Amino acid sequence: MFTTGSKLFFGATALSVAGAIVFAITTGGPTGLMGTIGLLSLASIFGFLGGINYFNSDGNVPAMQQGVQFTASAAQPPVGSSMWPLVSAVGIGGLVVGAVSKPVVFKVSVVVVLVATIEWMVQGWSERASADGGYNAGVRKRIAHPLEFPIVGTLGLGVVVYAFSRIMLTVSKEATPWIFLVIGTIIAVGAFMFTGKRKISRSTLLGVCTIGAVALLGAGVASAVQGQRTIKEHETTVDSALCLEGGIEAEIDDHGSQDVSAKSNVIANIFLESNNDLNARIAGFTDPEDNFSTITVPRSTDVRIRFHNESNSPQRLTARLGTFGEESEVVMCTTAINPGKEAILTLLIPKTNAASSTPMELQVPGVEGQTIAIVVP
User: What 8-state DSSP symbol labels residue 234?
Assistant: First the structure.
């Protein structure tokens, strides 16, 4: 038989479901989706409360039952205060927000709900372990603390790192140093203030840390929802536009190495002469006049070649390493090398020349008619 309280909750559940159906039919777009999710969430809450109320029969007990004055719920000592209901509510609210915004918000909310549920269950069990409150608290500490401290510490550090990274990726590059300066100043001043006090209550310290954590988490979530700032894509030495077109100046060229170690173990030296001739000198051939227009490179092996720029302007050496199937041509290059300087180019070619639909060769962008053929057996 349904009790009065369970009838009220189940009626509210049915009304919420009906409202969700009507709202979904009559309202479209993001507004309709959010409203429907909210009404369905409300229906699930009412249904859950109604089930609990029905199971407990509204807390009513038969008056003629033996010992009812000791076994009834009203005769039991009240449970202690707990923050887990509030944490659970925040997590459930985060599920709703995450379902219509960012997946990361939904995932974090799932973790919050699971943690709050487990902690709430452990607290409820420990408070009923005996009639001695001190013994119950000791039992909970022995069971839960070996698991709580490492997990909470890891999760807390992860949340701090993630929230701070979202904030840094959202604000402008110019504002980032100032944010670091302000946060560092706040932490330093706060540390001096706390150390200057001889006695600080535990509740005060906990309150300050909680406020700071909530502020950081809130700012991190808001930044994650807003999205990160647009970050300019920088050129790299595997950028086809940079490697194939001469005269392009890139930021990467400003900090590129212009010297090569004597222990680089190169298989060939590529020289761009002052008259713009491109020649290869292969290791093992000691005569300076032994210049080659072809080098042999083993397949699926990292090999290094040294580029010497003896021309009158900065130049880069580009390796065109073939086109395989429907993939785009594999291109890589050195940074722009100043006259009289040198650089290393590391190659890894997974297939032979026969598998490529385009030639494999070395060239210098802007220098026409000068190439070094690459043979991959």
Answer: P
- Residue 345 and residue 238: Cα distance in Å, rounded? 11
Q: How far is CA 308 from CA 167, 320, 351, in A?
A: 45, 18, 27
Task: Match 């083993």 to its residue by tokens.
Answer: 298
Domain 240-375 sits in CATH at 2.60.40.420
* Cα gap 347→375, rounded to integer Å: 13
Phi, psi at 363, each rounded to 5°: -150, 165
In this prediction, residue 74 has a pLDDT band, given cuts at 50, 70 and 90, of low
Report the sign of the C-alpha dihedral through residues 245, 246, 251, 254, in that order.
Answer: positive
- Give the mean model confidence (pLDDT) for residues 325-344: 88
Dig out the tokens for 6 from the structure. 């369970």
Distance, in Å, from the CA atom of 347 to the CA atom of 300, rounded to the nearest integer, reads: 9
Q: Are 344 and 264 in contact (CB under 8 A)?
A: yes
Token output for 8: 């009220």
User: Which residues lie below 8 Å from residue 34, measured CB to CB, with a gap of 6+?
Assistant: 100
- d(C-alpha 343, C-alpha 252), whole Å: 14
Radius of gyration of the CA atoms of the chain, in A: 35
| Residue among 300, 282, 304, 277 nearest 292 (CA) | 282
What is the domain partition of the chain in residue ranges?
4-226, 240-375
Q: What is the pTM of this model?
A: 0.48
Is residue 287 very low, low, confident or very high in pLDDT (cuts 50, 70, 90)? low
Q: CA torsion sign, 164 to 165 to 169 to 172?
A: positive
Count other Cβ atoms within 10 Å, centred on residue 71: 11
Phi-psi region at 325: left, alpha or beta (left = phi > 0; alpha = psi -120 to 50): left
Q: Three-state secondary structure along 315-363?
A: ECCEEEECCCCCCCCCEEECCCECCCCEEEEEECCCCCHHHCCCCEEEE
- First vs last Cα of the chain: how many Å apart? 85
Q: What is the mean pLDDT of residues 285-311?
A: 84
Extract the tokens encoding 171: 């604000």
Ramachandran class of 139: left when φ > 0, alpha when ψ lies in -120 to 50, beta otherwise? alpha
Distance CA 197, CA 41 (A): 47
